[in-house]
Amino acid sequence: MLFEQDQLKKMAAQAAIEYISPHLQTDMILGIGTGSTADLFIDALGSLRSKFKGAVASSDRSAARLKNVGIPVFDLNEVSSLRFYIDGADEINSNLDMLKGGGGALTREKIVASVAQQFICIVDQSKCVETLGQFPLPIEVIELSVQAVMRWAIAQGGQPIVRANFKTDNGHPIIDVSGLKITRPKDFESSLDHVAGVVTHGIFALRGADVALIASPNGVKTLLRP
Fold first, then answer.
1. What is this structure's pTM?
2. Are both 220 and 113 inside the same structural domain?
């Protein structure tokens, strides 16, 4: 099963390469996400490095991997816009709303995605859900607010725990909240955005994916945001 999922991730990553390849220009900068599927995309992207200028990475991990395949890495403050942002997801629904952040890079992922003209989500079929929340929702918080945010999560019907022995690239803890059924992702995202002490969280609905490339044993299906 694990081998099959790895193959599906490679299929999704390769589909993204084929999707963006005709549009690459030598002055273009891409946004690149974080995670196992994004890693495979980065590895494949190295063969195209002469066709675009470089990339903005959503994590130190992805930045190191990009440099390793010869792709220049830029700070987002140096870039006015990105043609594409390519990243995976922990869950995605039919509206292309996503739950992300299992790898802990959610804040930088959300920032980089906000600058991109088009968000391409690359996933295997196991990430497709009807309702977000089966995967624990990550919430990056200021240390001072941990208990307050956990109380908020409990009031929403969730079971929060602080991610053990983990700090984000920004130096903050993450609270993972299980037991949620997020039936209205945009409303939930907007509400959580206003909880004091929250840096950001893993609901990507207000700025969801524009395109999803979903790999299954039958091939890769392309879905567009309604």
1. 0.95
2. yes
